[in-house]
């Protein structure tokens, strides 16, 4: 097992609306994150799987176009993960707003 894979033992799964590839950017603790190439085969069809170290994270989704007037962003969800834990989040659009929630 690679050192990075051993450190990043947790996963944040984010399911997005069908056909939304490239429309949104995922921010984890203010950093843009995507599925790394080593996990592309596990990536959901409409979404991302983001490996992280155990810890506390703030997750928010924003429209990709940075300089767009009125750029839309979701609510922020706080996630606390222990070693080997995973969390599943889902992004929905409601009346033009982006709504991020836990997928139960």
What is the share of helical residues? under 10%
Kindly report the spatial arrangement of strands forming the biggest sheet: 4-1-7-8
The sequence of SSEs as H and E is HEEEEEEEE
Summed up, the helix count is 1
For the sheet with most strands, the description reads:
4 strands, mixed
Low-confidence stretches: none
What portion of the residues fall into strands of 2 or more residues?
Answer: over 45%
Estimated radius of gyration? 14 Å
The secondary-structure class comes to: mainly beta
Mean pLDDT comes to: 91
Molecular structure report:
The longest helix is centred in the N-terminal third of the chain and has 5 residues. A hairpin with a 2-residue loop joins strand 7 and strand 8. The chain has 104 residues and is mainly beta. The strands form 2 sheets. It has a 4-stranded mixed β-sheet with strand order 4-1-7-8, with no helix packed on it. Strands 3-2-5-6 form a 4-stranded antiparallel β-sheet, with no helix packed on it. The protein is built from 1 helix and 8 strands; from the N terminus they run H-E-E-E-E-E-E-E-E. It is globular and about 40 Å long. The mean pLDDT is 91.
């Amino acid at each position: 097992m690679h050192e990075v894979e051993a450190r990043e033992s947790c996963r944040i799964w984010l399911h997005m609306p069908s056909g939304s590839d490239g429309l949104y950017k995922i921010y984890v603790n203010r950093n843009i994150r995507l599925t790394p190439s080593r996990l592309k085969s596990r990536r959901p069809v409409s979404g991302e799987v983001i490996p992280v170290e155990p810890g506390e994270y703030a997750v928010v989704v924003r429209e990709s176009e940075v300089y767009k007037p009125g750029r839309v962003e979701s609510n922020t969800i706080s996630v606390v993960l222990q070693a080997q834990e995973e969390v599943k989040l889902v992004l929905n659009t409601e009346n033009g707003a982006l709504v991020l929630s836990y997928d139960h």
